[in-house]
Specification:
The complex is a heterodimer. Chain A is of the alpha+beta class. Among the domains of chain A are: 42-132, Immunoglobulin-like (Sandwich), CATH 2.60.40.10; 145-226, Sandwich (Immunoglobulin-like); 232-316, Immunoglobulins (Immunoglobulin-like); 324-414, Immunoglobulins (Immunoglobulin-like, Sandwich), CATH 2.60.40; 425-609, Sandwich (Immunoglobulin-like), CATH 2.60.40.10; 621-708, Immunoglobulin-like (Sandwich). In chain A, 16% of the residues lie in helices and 33% in strands. Chain A is flat. Chain B is mainly alpha-helical. Chain B has one domain: Growth Hormone, Chain: A (Up-down Bundle). Chain B contains six helices and no strands. Classes of the chains: A alpha+beta, B mainly alpha. Chain A binds chain B through residues 144, 146, 149-150, 175, 177-178, 202-205, 207-209, 211, 215-222, 257-262, 277, 279-280, and chain B through 43-48, 50-51, 92, 94-100, 149-152, 154-155. Chain B: One of its GO terms (biological process) is negative regulation of neuron apoptotic process. Chain B: InterPro entries: 4_helix_cytokine-like_core, Ciliary_neurotrophic_fac_CNTF.
């Protein structure tokens, strides 16, 4: 209860439970520590540092050196700190003090502190609880709700924020720079969050927002995260030899700006912050009135400070100010430059000064260095007349040089004019002794002022007088025509010199001298151009007292050529000629002249191209046929168009898609080529000229080789003549030997031997019919019976017959006489060779010759065609004979009717009419009126029809109509045709 | 509104009227202030819209207000906005500035320079509408309480920008809605006053 009386004034009456705990603890302590003798700490006081979050705890504690200290969050009674500490003791007052640093801002919530003395394991009773009231206390009048406010922290640090809500509010979230953070509840109304490893903040700081669910409320704090200052390169110097100007670099960006958080600078404790607040300026300066020799720079901000020092003597740190008020007094070739110094103290200072002169014309920079005590003027030589210049100066201490001072302002001036330089003159002569004196235009640097004119004198050195008044030419004229013939007249054939002078406001230039003498041309070897130009070499000429002149120009320029030249000093033996006017494909003549007081002399000459090209024009090509060869001729390419040294010609033959090189003519003088080995046809030839650069496009000529027409005609005529001659010989021979021929090929048919009782009178033909009803001339046994038949062909209408029989049944090529009356009808009376007519008949048949004609054996209707049985065709002969014999009277029966049908014959069948027996035994039946009903029959007939009705020749055993059998028919046709031809021939040759 | 705005600017006589010019100026200021707000929101990571606490105090809008009252209302609001803005810019520069000037600072400067032009235009219109007895509002006694905490300062600056944004838009709408007859009368009055001042 004593403890209860110790805490009557405690303001922490928030929780009955907590108080009950304290009471129990108090009782326990009083009983435990009643006899220890350790003094209970008295008069505990709490002193918070809100910004640093440090809580300074002090008490009176008797003789103990160690104390147990417990710190609790009052509201939730959560232990924040409980350790044995050794506080510092104020020996005068006996007050113990110990400082605790809180992670959370001290305003976040109330903290309760108790202390007890400790001696080893023995402790005293706990002191009275002292409480630091937080802002979450209901009685707190603080309106700020988020702690800490506006804190400045270094990069990488951690920070804990707490947010105290109003009564009844519910926290939604805490956000640091837009990111929601994790929340810890410290008390009923207080929430905290910790942000680790802070990054540098922006200029206005990073925001911590406390967002309750009530959107109307918004609390927060700003934290600035940055670096302490880190200045660099701190140096002090003097400009006026008295004061000090210190400079340094601001170093890294601290990320802290403004008058409250920005870096402040102090040099030797003088505040130099005001002039260095511009964050865009990386350099800072501070001026001290006197030279102190030692300087200390201190750079401070809320996160720390950094110091730099510098020590130096004044004479080692002199940096002169920029020279002022520059003035120039200029002459033609030089100028005097002077300036003023701001400080009189410079008059005794040894200075070194740098002068930069820039010529306006070519922007060329000239740097010159001068030195001297108190230097304030310099002499600038080697300038050009009539030239604009600008000049500036800067200086440094000559002794213990520290650094150059600033440049002065630019000062401009112009030099005076001067007489021009001697023109560079030369002469160009044409072949007719006319020419011109030429000189190179004077540049601005050579003119030394604006040129007013050129003057040319013709001077006789022997007479030492001018041959004519001076010729004045405007400044834009750089040549004068001359005529050596006329000049020779005036000079009495003495030597003449042209003197050329240029004039400006300052006067005339020294004259250029050119000897007006012609020179004999020399042979010009080729020269090869290199990267450095045309390399020319020659031996030194003792007469070249005033050097050499190398002249070059277009080799094919005919008149008044633009000549270029270069003058070389005496003793020179080589030079490389290069010119901006050189063009590829142009041949240049380069000439070396010696220069002496008497005359000019051509020493050497060369020819060359800077770059050879292919010829620019094609050849003029012509082609002609010469016998079996082709002659190609072309004309020379003009020199101007060659564009290189011509090396030869390539001759190509193009045949369709092929382009073949025929010949390489390596002699450029050759202007023709003969192409051989070409026969009849059209050929294209292309001739290309080539230089070292290659071929030109070439010219193509086309040649058509004509065949030998005359010879061909001659050959044809000869052949025809020979054939005609041969035919004539054969004809003649045949004529002469016609008897033999007739005998060999057409022997006379022996007359039939008639018996003596053969009636001589002409009576009705009563020839006893042969046993066969048809004439069957058989010479060869293979002949089938179909040949033995006689087929009557209508006489009047061949077409009809043809149609009736079939197209192929009649040999229409044969003459009618051969087809029908082709027999040689002997007019003589028939004389039977055998007494028996029957025998005669048989004999006649066996002889295969008969004089029987069939002139009357026909009808006006369709031909009667006797169709043989094909099967029986091969068996025809003998059975025929047999049947004819069996039938007996097989004589001639012109109107023979069809025989009566037999048992083995079917009348209804067409075959019945084709019975071999009927054919053979029926004899000739030309007027048969049978019609073939069936097309089959007709076809079958057609197959045999060609043989039917074909008469046989009286001289041949062959049928005159083709056989139905194709192969044999063809053969027979051929033999028949041959026989017919021969017959005709013989007939025609018969006398 | 846009159509009416167009008609106001390109009237039948082909010339812009004073209200149309003022409305165009208010539109422009509104656009610039919207951009400034957006820049500020991005700069400060204000993902949530902060509380809309009104800083400008004027009579509430009413259909009973005549043209002169409407002009007076927007003119008064813009005057308050100007005072708030000047204070906000100065305080922000003092507490949070000192660094390099960027897009935000340039836009802030632009808005600060254009707002007086709009105030001048509305003041002229108000004078024209009221005739010779001009009773232009004054902000002489207006007290501006600037928060002490830096976050509160930022929130306050943001609210000031929102006020400028709101009142520039309101001004544009009001100026576009002004009856043309009143405007013409106002214009005649303005010309008469100008003539009188010229005679003097």
């Amino acid at each position: 209860m004593a403890h209860l009386s110790l805490t009557p004034t405690s303001k922490l009456i928030s929780s009955g439970f907590v108080w009950l705990l304290w009471i129990v603890l108090g009782f326990s302590t009083s009983h435990t520590h009643a006899d220890t003798g350790l003094t209970v700490p008295q008069r505990v006081t709490l002193s918070p540092n809100w910004y640093t979050q440090e809580l300074s705890i002090s008490w009176l504690g008797g003789g103990a050196t160690t104390f147990d200290l417990i710190i609790l969050r009052t509201e939730f009674n959560e232990t924040v700190f409980y350790e044995t500490v050794s506080p510092t003791v104020n020996k005068v007052s006996g007050l113990h003090q110990w400082t605790w640093t809180s992670v959370n801002p001290l305003e976040c919530t109330s903290l309760s502190v108790k202390i007890c003395s400790r001696d080893g394991h023995t402790t005293s009773e706990w002191s009275q609880t002292e409480t630091l009231q937080g802002n979450d206390h209901p009685n707190s009048e603080q309106r700020v709700k988020v702690f800490p406010q506006d804190k400045v922290l270094p990069v990488g640090a951690n920070i804990t924020f707490c947010c105290i809500l109003d009564e009844g509010m519910v926290l939604d979230k805490l956000k640091y720079d837009g990111n929601t953070t994790s929340v810890t509840r410290l008390s009923r109304r207080t929430y905290s969050t910790t942000v680790f490893n802070l990054v540098a903040s922006r200029q206005s700081g990073s925001n911590m927002l406390c967002l309750p669910e009530d959107k109307e409320k918004l609390y927060g704090a700003v934290v600035f995260v940055g670096y302490p200052p880190l200045p660099i390169d701190f140096k002090c110097e003097t400009h006026d030899l008295r004061s000090a100007v210190c400079q340094w670099g601001k170093g890294r960006d601290t990320h802290l700006y403004g008058s409250q958080r920005g870096t402040r600078y102090f040099v030797n404790n003088r505040d130099c912050s005001e002039v260095n607040q511009d964050v865009g300026q990386k350099e800072a300066t501070c001026t001290l009135d006197t030279w102190e020799g030692n300087w200390t720079l201190v750079a401070k901000n809320l996160l720390g400070q950094y110091s730099l020092t510098d020590t130096a003597e004044l004479s080692h740190r002199v940096c002169p100010v920029a020279p002022d008020l520059l003035s120039v007094v200029a002459d033609a070739w030089n100028a005097s430059l002077s300036w003023h110094w701001k400080y009189d103290s410079y008059s005794s200072l040894a200075l070194v000064c740098q002068v930069e002169i820039t010529a306006t014309e070519d922007e060329k920079l000239i740097k010159r260095v001068f030195s001297g005590v108190g230097l304030r003027s310099v002499f600038l030589s080697d300038l050009y007349p009539d030239e604009h210049y600008s000049v500036k100066v800067r200086c440094g201490a000559q002794q213990n040089f520290w650094k150059w001072g600033n440049w002065s302002k630019l000062s401009s001036f112009k030099t005076k004019t001067y007489v021009p330089d001697t023109p560079d003159a030369w002469i160009w002569l044409n072949t007719d002794n006319t020419g011109k004196v030429v000189w190179k235009p004077l540049t601005r640097r050579q003119s030394h002022g604006k040129l007013t004119q050129y003057e040319v004198f013709l001077w006789s050195p022997e007479e030492n007088r001018a041959l004519a008044p001076a010729v004045t030419l405007p400044p834009n004229n750089w040549s004068m025509p001359v005529n050596l013939t006329e000049i020779a007249f005036f000079s009495n054939n003495g030597s003449v010199i042209a003197k050329v002078t240029a004039r400006n406001d300052a006067g005339s230039s020294p004259p250029a001298r050119v000897h007006l003498t012609s020179v004999e041309p020399l042979a010009a070897p080729r020269i090869v151009y290199t990267d450095q130009g045309f390399p020319l070499f020659w031996e030194n000429n003792a007469n070249a007292t005033c050097g050499y002149v190398v002249e070059w120009l277009d080799a094919f320029c005919p008149q008044d050529c633009p000549v270029e030249w270069i003058k070389l000093p005496a003793g020179t033996t080589n030079v490389s000629i290069e010119s901006a006017t050189f063009q590829p494909g142009v041949r240049y003549n380069l000439s070396l002249y010696s220069c002496s007081s008497d005359a000019r002399e051509l020493l050497k000459r060369w020819q060359g191209y800077t770059q050879e090209l292919v010829p620019s024009v094609a050849l003029t090509l012509s082609a002609s046929q010469q016998n079996a060869d082709i002659l190609l001729t072309w004309k020379e390419i003009p020199l101007v168009n060659r564009r290189g040294f011509l090396l030869g010609y390539n001759i190509y033959n193009s045949t369709g898609y092929q382009f073949k090189l025929l010949e390489n003519v390596s002699d450029p003088e050759t202007m023709s080529y003969t192409a051989k080995g070409f026969t009849k046809g059209t050929f294209k030839f292309t001739v290309k000229a080539y230089t070292a650069a290659g071929e030109n496009t070439g010219t193509t000529a086309t040649v058509t080789i004509e065949p030998y027409t005359d010879w061909l005609i001659l050959e044809i005529l000869t052949s025809l003549g020979l054939v005609t001659l041969l035919l004539a010989i054969v004809t003649f021979t045949c004529y002469k030997k016609r008897k033999w021929v007739k005998k060999a090929f057409y022997p006379d048919i022996p007359e039939p031997k008639l018996p003596s009782d053969w009636p001589r009178t002409r009576g009705p033909l009563d020839v006893k019919p042969s046993p066969h009803s048809m004439v069957c001339v058989v010479e060869t046994p293979e002949y089938d019976c179909i040949k033995d038949m006689l087929v009557a062909i209508p006489e009047e209408d061949e077409d009809d017959a043809g149609q009736g029989i079939g197209d192929e049944s009649v040999d229409t090529d044969e003459p009618t006489s051969l087809r029908y009356y082709n027999q040689m009808v002997d007019e003589r009376p028939i004389r039977p060779r055998f007494p028996d007519s029957s025998a005669s008949s048989i004999s006649s048949m066996s002889s295969a010759h008969t004089d029987v004609t069939y002139t009357g054996i026909q009808t006006s209707g369709s031909s009667l065609v006797l169709q043989l049985d094909p099967q029986g065709s091969s068996e025809c002969h003998q059975p025929q004979l047999d049947r004819s014999v069996s039938y007996g009277g097989g004589g001639y029966r012109p109107q023979m009717q069809p025989r009566a049908p037999s048992d083995d014959m079917d009348l209804s069948s067409p075959e019945s009419f084709l019975e071999p027996q009927a054919a053979c035994s029926g004899g000739y039946k030309p007027q048969g009126s049978w019609q073939l009903d069936s097309p089959v029959d007709a076809a079958e007939m057609g197959s045999l029809a060609p043989s039917l009705g074909s008469p046989t020749s009286v001289a041949s055993t062959q049928f005159l109509l083709p056989d139905g059998e194709e192969n044999t028919g063809e053969k027979r046709q051929l033999s028949s045709s041959a026989a017919s031809w021969l017959t005709n021939l013989l007939s025609s040759t018969k006398p | 509104m846009a159509g009416r705005s167009t008609r106001g600017i390109n009237g039948s006589n082909g010339s812009r009227t004073a209200p149309a010019r003022a409305a165009a100026l208010a539109d422009l200021l509104h656009y610039e202030c919207s951009t400034l707000l957006e820049l500020f929101r991005k700069k400060e990571n204000f993902t949530e819209d902060v509380t809309d606490r009104r800083l400008v105090s004027v009579p509430p809008p009413s259909s009973q207000l005549d043209t002169r009252d409407k002009l007076w209302r927007i003119h008064s609001a813009l005057l308050q906005c100007q005072k708030l803005l000047e204070k906000a810019v100065a305080k922000e520069e003092e507490e949070l500035g000192g660094g390099k000037k960027g897009k935000y600072e340039n836009k802030r400067k632009l808005v600060k320079e254009r707002l007086p032009l709009l105030i001048l235009s509305t003041g002229e219109l108000l004078k024209a509408a009221e005739g010779t007895t001009s009773l232009t509002p004054s902000v002489e006694g207006l007290e501006v309480n600037v928060p002490t905490g830096l976050l509160d300062l930022k929130l306050w600056v943001y609210r000031v920008y929102k006020e400028v944004n709101y009142w520039s838009k309101t001004a544009a709408n009001t100026l576009k809605d002004l009856p043309s007859v009143i405007v013409k009368e106002g214009a005649r009055t303005t010309r008469a006053r100008n003539r009188r001042s010229t005679r003097r």
